[in-house]
Amino acid sequence: MADGTTHRIQDTRETRETRETADTTTHRTSATPPEFGTEHPGGEWNSPSLVAVIGVRHKVAVDGLPEQRIAAIARLQRGCISRHQLLEVGLSVAGVSRLTARGALYRIRRGVFAVGHLAPTALRDDTSALLAARRSVALSHASAAALWDVAPERGDGELVHVVVDGEAASRVWGVCAHRSRRLQPRDVRIRQGLPVTSPARTLLDQAEAESDRTVELAFNELLVRRHLRVADVTELVKRSNGRRGVGILRALVAQQSAPTISRSRAEELLLALLRSARLPPPLTNAPLLGFEADFFWPAHRLVVEFDSFQFHFTRRALERDRRKDAILIAAGYIPMRITWRELQDEPYAVVARIAETLGRTAP
Questions:
Q1: What is the pTM of this model?
Q2: Fewest C-beta atoms under 10 Å: which of 47, 55, 224, 263?
């Protein structure tokens, strides 16, 4: 009896263990992979998902397994993906949490993740800001100016500026969202894979926050690089009544239509004015410290440089001129700069400045 009872008890235990094992096997087989935690809508991963992607005007079709879909989107967004995009490809909220817990996703902003790693990536902050800001349309203001290469790149701790469509804008850490109801499709371009306000719209936005000189430099730089046409600014000004930056843009457009003089003609005019004032004649286009000085009075150590639009009115040219002036000053010379506008509008004031400096530095 004891042997029989023992045998039946063992059989019962073995049967129960077998049944539990079978139940567990059945559960694991019927479930989707535990790292994703959900099935694709429809129960299969065969049909592609259509997902809105930053910098692409139409929705992108992604297919394959969940990790393949995530990778396809992240490749187009500098390694970033939003929670909304993860849900669009079929993941559940629990699946997103699971991927985050195991280090496959890294939260970098509210509702935005880096896929696989946190290594620095160019423009990732801008990309994640566009993904995080609700109803964002494009980078704007200082962020747009930096992308068009007419402003310094964003420093650590500085805000990313975006323009959003409509009245309400969500608050996102590190992002400054500007509401706009006037933004039109022609005001947005794609540059380096990111939506950004057009050069003309960027100038208008910057004109409300920066000095007139900064806006003028950016305007000239964009013209020289052929990113901007004067007609673009004229058209934008006409439909932007009430914006604070319209005045400076209108003045810059007016300057472009004003008559100008060439560099050689300006040099001839200045030499004629110097002769009329009976001032000592300078050396022209004289080599000095590795540079070429437009006008040079060696005995007075005075160097006069003529700034024309083509040669001196871009940001890089301005920086080059400042370095040149610093070298001249360090060597004991006196640099003086004259613009073609001063020469046209105030020729006698220009001559007076030169005469005063020559008198003050007479040997």
A1: 0.65
A2: 47
